[in-house]
Design goal:
This protein is of the alpha/beta class. It has 8 helices and 7 strands. The chain has one domain: Vaccinia Virus protein VP39 (Rossmann fold, 3-Layer(aba) Sandwich). Strands 3-2-1-4-5-7-6 form a 7-stranded mixed β-sheet, with helices on both faces. α5 links the parallel β2 and β3. α3 packs parallel to α4 and α6 crosses α8. The chain is globular, with a radius of gyration of 17 Å. The model has no long low-confidence stretch (mean pLDDT 90). It holds the Pfam family Methyltransf_25.
């Protein structure tokens, strides 16, 4: 799962016993050589699904990390793209990869940007946000978008109960809950806290109109359902 240039077991252990911010500061130089980085296939499928809905003006990568999602924005947006993250280490790596991007260090749970962007995306970040914090994140993205702006992100279908992945993810989340109960500072990283139904409800409560579209290029489950869907949350357009 990790390349020879990726983090060592000791480095991962130190990261896991740190706060989310400090952990990602430590991991940042090697993050793109870990399985935690969003695969190019998901980025490409997202870009393909969004392209017919554009072109877009300014784009924002929410919890941008090392900037993988800015590849998507760069292919879709006619104006400058930006990324926001609270890890200085991750932002430093993103700046190297995207020297022309505008990068902002901020906590997305209290995002203060106002009607500056036409498209916002996020990849693999919602597991670092507790369900109780998600409404504040979505409200901040809603403020950051211009009227008619779009917030988009992929969500994978939950593995079936009979799948080894189901039990692996369940076990991982259980270990993280125990870790956070006995160790401070907490490290928020869960895989089973973002079911589509509750995410839709939170987006709707923040003022978005929500639809989804299947990312068919990423395959289907045995029952024919897509493995991934793209959440499309639209801010109400200005009636004028």
């Amino acid at each position: 799962m990790f390349s020879d240039q990726g983090p060592s077991l000791r480095e991962l252990a130190v990261q896991a016993l740190s706060s989310v911010e400090r952990g990602y500061d430590l991991l940042a130089p090697k993050f793109d050589r870990t399985p935690f980085r969003t695969p190019d296939g998901i980025l490409d499928a997202t870009a393909d699904a969004l392209r017919p809905l554009g072109p877009f003006g300014r784009g924002l990568d929410v919890c941008c990390g090392t900037g993988a999602g800015m590849q998507v924005l760069g292919s879709l947006c006619r104006e400058r793209v930006a990324g926001v993250d609270f890890s200085a280490g991750m932002l430093a790596q993103a700046q190297k990869a995207h020297p022309d991007a505008e990068l902002v260090r901020a906590d997305v749970r209290s995002l203060s940007l106002s009607e500056e962007f036409d498209l916002a995306v996020t990849f693999g970040a919602l597991g670092h946000v507790l369900p109780s914090e998600r409404p504040a994140v979505f409200a901040g993205v809603h403020r950051a978008l211009r009227p008619g702006g779009l917030f988009a992100f992929p969500i994978g279908a939950p593995p079936p109960l009979t799948s080894a992945w189901y039990w692996a993810l369940l076990g991982f989340d259980a270990v993280m809950r125990v870790r956070n109960a006995v160790w401070r500072p907490p490290f928020v990283m869960y895989y089973r806290t973002c079911p589509v139904s509750t995410v839709r409800d939170d987006l709707s409560a923040a003022g978005f109109t929500v639809t989804t579209t299947p990312l068919t290029s990423l395959g289907h489950r045995d029952n024919g359902a897509p493995r991934y869907r793209l959440i499309l949350a639209r801010k109400t357009p200005d009636p004028t």
